Amino acid sequence: MKRANIGASQDHAAETGDDDRPAMRVAVVDDDPFILELVELFINEVSACDVVPFDSPLKALDAIREGTKAFDCLLLDISMPRMDGIELCREIRKVEGYARAPIIMLTAMTERDYVDRAFRAGATDYLTKPIDMLELRARLKSANQIVEALRDAQESVQEKKNDATAFERTAPVLGISGLLDYAALVNYLMQLSRGKLGQVQVAAVALRDADRIVRENDSEVFLALMAEIAQSVSEVFDPLDSVLAYCGGGSFVVMFRDESIRQSAEIEKQVQEVLDRAIAGNRQERLPDVSITISNPINSIAGDANRVRKILDRAIERAHAKAAI
């Protein structure tokens, strides 16, 4: 099988980051040898990645767990024997060092159930077959931007000897299974739009006095609070077939299908009650009492990335405006 051309053209190098840094190392997992070779050839055409193919999800998981040489990005098929790509994604997220690595589902499965399950399992992006070269190039470019940001963050942590800020737009720092981060959230809404998979209601959850709480507590306490809020929101919204994402700054966005909810007052009260009980029961962390606010839902029909971000920003702004009252 043809190997990836690490010394690709300057155009390809521009797609995959700084020339002084190693090429993005990509694991591709698909049980179909023809598709596996085709994907590798396509990646060679559009990027300068170092590609490692796996014809079995179990072989891929073993290699990832062994950790001899880490992968920066992973492309996973869904329909595979013994372990499907969604379960593989979930298991990869449990491996140290892979909580934030970009994982792209590359699959023929277009139904919304698969999309929802994949993102809840930790997928960063979702690309459907047959493979479009321009789409593949765009997704790899986005993945590489995440990889570069993670490398920069790691270098910053090493220099400052400090934890990553609790305010950043990343969900894995909270340690909550099924919680999306901001990049995955945007990709999720875009995939719903591309696949014409229906509308969702979008509401934001904001922590009142977040700046003060950050000033008065260390990062571990703040992250523990965010985790309790995430779990409380999930408990209340789970019956509504929801997807939850952390957007930084003490804010979350929750997406759900129930269009009957027009006002947030009652559901906000339910979340606050669950949160109060959780904080009262968490004696080990000694968390301060806090309150949250939830914006009224926005009916999202998504669109391109800019439109998606505007919808999310609008929901978050509503929640923060309400929190300031």
UniProtKB/TrEMBL annotation:
Domain of life, source organism: Bacteria
Response regulatory domain boundaries: 25-144
A biological process from GO: phosphorelay signal transduction system
Signal peptide range: none
Identification of the protein by name: Response regulatory domain-containing protein
Positions carrying 4-aspartylphosphate: D77
InterPro entries cross-referenced by the UniProt entry: Bact_response_regulator (IPR050595), CheY-like_superfamily (IPR011006), GGDEF_dom (IPR000160), Rev_trsase/Diguanyl_cyclase (IPR043128), Sig_transdc_resp-reg_receiver (IPR001789)
Pfam families listed in its UniProt record: Response_reg
GGDEF domain mapped to chain residues: 201-325
Keywords: Coiled coil, Phosphoprotein
Coiled coil: 133-170
